[in-house]
Amino acid sequence: MFHKKAIGLAAVCAASRQAPRWLRRSICPLAYAPRKGSPESAPSGPDVPRAPINSPGPENASHGGQDQDQRETEQAAPQPAAIEKQGGAEEPRREGGKEAGRDDDDATRRREAADLAAQQSMAASAVKMLDLTFAQIIVGILGIVGLGVTIYYTRETARAARGATIAARDSVVLAKDSLVLSQRPWILVDVSLGGPLRYDQNGMNITLDLVLTNTGETPAFQVIPHIVPYIRTQARFDDRAEQTKLAEDVKIRRPSRFGYTIFPKRGVSVSWTVTIPHAEIAAAHAEFEGAITFVTPFVVGTVSYVFTLSDKAHQTGIIYQLARLNPSNPRITLAIDTAAGDVPREMLALSESSLGGPYID
């Protein structure tokens, strides 16, 4: 391949003989390059002597142009040995250039491969960090969900525990109430007339016999009767309201240390006299402008007591009406005539009120 290039170069140089010298030098630089040992190749300088150049004299002036052309032709004609030598020198340079180029390419590829590997490593690290961040987010979400579930079940557990506590408390209260109801004392009050109806300076006196019986299973303590008589008028017509008022008054009183103790299935008889003042009798007459002297006495009462299974006082209430029997028909009762004076016991009738009766709390 090199010899073919050399031969082609020689042909070009031979064809350019008629061209100017400077053009031939540019086309065939090797043919016009200074040769070793020629004056043009010798070093120049002030200290280096240069060999004299034979200038054309008169004797060789006619041959100067021919010799010059011959030398130029010889110089322009490429020598195979020189061309081969020059090709042999050029080939290592080209091979070295190629090797250097290949080395540069290899270094460039290695740098690019290293950069690519570094970028891939950074990308892999970024992906790992992204995965780790995503995993942390998932773990955080799961933690929040788990915390919410824990709070929910804790609240449900607390609610269930509270419900169980309330149920247990209700069970205890129910058991206590059941125990109280089954074991508490119950005071039954029987009321009957204990004597005639009599008048004195204080007013109308009514004597009652009370029988207090404990029908329960435990003793009753501090058993005390509270009896209040009154005459029914337009202002005091509601018997149940009179009884409720008395019961409330008894509840707010301080419990007395006195009273009867009644054991289960036992009873106590008590004689109790109550008085209606003359002023109250006169007020009842005033409703009819004194034209009518008949009145209807009522007796409301409550018996209070305590027992060991309870910390409060309990009561049994009563409401009774007092009337006079009709001598001609004992099944008919009449109002009490205050102008007739005392009334014997056998002419009196005591009955529970039709508008209200006994109660127990």
User: Averaged pLDDT, please?
Assistant: 78
SSE string, helices as H and strands as E? HHHHEEEEHEEHEEEEEEE
Q: What class, by secondary structure content?
A: alpha+beta
Annotation, overall tally of beta strands: 13
Give unreliable regions as ranges. Answer: 39-66
Number of helices: 6
Shape: rod-shaped
Helix proportion: 40-55%
Task: Write a concise keyword list for the protein shown above.
361 residues; alpha+beta; 4-stranded antiparallel beta sheet; 6 helices; 13 strands
Mind explaining what this structure looks like?
With 361 residues, the chain is of the alpha+beta class. The protein has a domain at 187-360. It contains 6 helices and 13 strands. The strands form 3 sheets. Strands 4, 5, 8, 9, 10, 12 and 13 form a 7-stranded antiparallel β-sheet that branches. Strands 1, 2, 3 and 6 form a 4-stranded antiparallel β-sheet that branches. The chain has a two-stranded antiparallel sheet with strand order 7-11. It starts with a helix and ends with a strand.
In short:
The chain has 361 residues and is of the alpha+beta class.
Topology summary:
Layout: H1 2-15, H2 21-27, H3 61-76, H4 80-183, E1 187-193, E2 198-199, E3 203-214, E4 220-231, H5 239-252, E5 260-262, E6 267-277, H6 278-286, E7 294-295, E8 297-306, E9 314-325, E10 333-334, E11 336-337, E12 348-352, E13 359-360
Antiparallel strand pairs: 1-3, 2-3, 3-6, 4-5, 4-8, 7-11, 8-9, 9-10, 9-12, 9-13
